[in-house]
Design brief:
Structural class: alpha/beta
Bound molecules: 1-O-pyrophosphono-5-O-phosphono-alpha-D-ribofuranose
Oligomer: single chain
Distance between the termini: 27 Å
Strand content: 25-35%
Largest sheet: 6 strands, mixed
Number of helices: 3
Radius of gyration: 16 Å
Number of strands: 10
Strand order of the largest sheet: 5-4-3-6-7-8
Shape: globular
Order of helices and strands: EEHEHEEEHEEEE
Length: 190
Amino acid sequence: MTTTVKIKDKLFELLVPAEEISAAVDAIASRINADYASKEPLFLCILNGSFMFAADLLRRIRVPCRVSFVKYASYAGTKSTQYIKNLVGLNEDVEAKDVIIVEDIVDTGLTMSHLLTELSEKKPATVRIAAFCFKKEAFQATFTIDYLGMEIPNAFVIGYGMDYEGYGRNLAEIYQISDNQYPTSNTSTC
Ligand code: PRP
């Protein structure tokens, strides 16, 4: 297993090996399969970053379900002045449906908050959140993650769908930027 990767000018060190990721996805899938045993959820995956977690998770789901995607672009002056534009909007009929949002990482929580607001206007029956990573220290929102893979440090991470300037999403492991290197936020790096 590679413990260090270089992407462009940055060095990244192994944070979460693939086996640990797989075990965490197993645990989330088991809980969802139990919780939705008599339901037919719609999985709503946030592109781009969630593609790998979504693929791994959905392969383990055994209840009848639908899968759809949304994609946002976030523009930042600073993190607190960030606003979000819909690139691929919410086109599914979600009214009275059980929705599970699938996200690779919740950092500040602004992206998820945007989707939750958009969803609430369309009157789903229930909305739950499955997120693989959570940066508790960076979190600025108030929602609860129902199905969480793991908490991670407030450092810039790549791999398992997450990128540095568009690269690194394909890595099967999660890597953290080496000490003393900018950036720390995982939003809008490409
Ligand atoms: C990343 C990540 C989440 C979001 C989390 O997406 O995939 O969607 O940031 O950050 P937040 O909690 O601070 O909003 P990004 O906007 O970088 O796009 P990407 O998924 O295409 O990488």
